[in-house]
Amino acid sequence: MKRIASFEVDHTKLRPGLYLSRVDGKAGCEVSTFDIRLTAPNHEPPVDMPALHTIEHLGATFLRNGERKEDIVYFGPMGCRTGCYLVMFGKLSPEDVIGLVESMCEFIMRYEGDIPGATPAECGNWREQNLAEAKYYVSRYLRALRTERNTKYPA
């Protein structure tokens, strides 16, 4: 079986950042997948599940209600819990979306109140949320993103 592209990335070298994972296309439609790497894989513990769940709910709410809502295909957590995937229509670069990602992080850091979609009717695990921890992970990610400007996979 052919190895998928994401397994070709040396995860021991990844740091928090925004990385273009892949661009796919079919029938004239292109989509870009970005890794929003909140923690350094294999160097730091993965993101706490309730915090990651809250980041998913708030991030998706922000992205699907914002200026670029028509460009959003998907936003959600990575299975390894070191970050989230952002999938958008178009052949894009990290530089094309870094402002959007920063705005999403700022939204999460300012957010107060009930988590959108966190009711039994709206979510299969609605109780597992942690806004304070979500803000912690997002604030350290945003600081690293602005300091390091990690937008390309390390060699």
TrEMBL record:
Reported function: Involved in the synthesis of autoinducer 2 (AI-2) which is secreted by bacteria and is used to communicate both the cell density and the metabolic potential of the environment. The regulation of gene expression in response to changes in cell density is called quorum sensing. Catalyzes the transformation of S-ribosylhomocysteine (RHC) to homocysteine (HC) and 4,5-dihydroxy-2,3-pentadione (DPD).
Protein's organism: Candidatus Protoclostridium stercorigallinarum
GO molecular function: iron ion binding; S-ribosylhomocysteine lyase activity
Lyase listed as a keyword: yes
Organism taxonomic ancestry: Bacteria, Bacillati, Bacillota, Clostridia, Candidatus Protoclostridium
Gene Ontology annotations of biological process type: quorum sensing
EC number: 4.4.1.21
Subunit structure as annotated in this protein's UniProt entry: Homodimer.
Domain of life of the source: Bacteria
Family: Belongs to the LuxS family.
Protein name: S-ribosylhomocysteine lyase
Keyword terms: Autoinducer synthesis, Iron, Lyase, Metal-binding, Quorum sensing
Catalytic activity: S-(5-deoxy-D-ribos-5-yl)-L-homocysteine = (S)-4,5-dihydroxypentane-2,3-dione + L-homocysteine
Cofactor(s) in the UniProt record: Fe cation
EC class of the enzyme, as a word: lyase
Keyword Metal-binding: yes
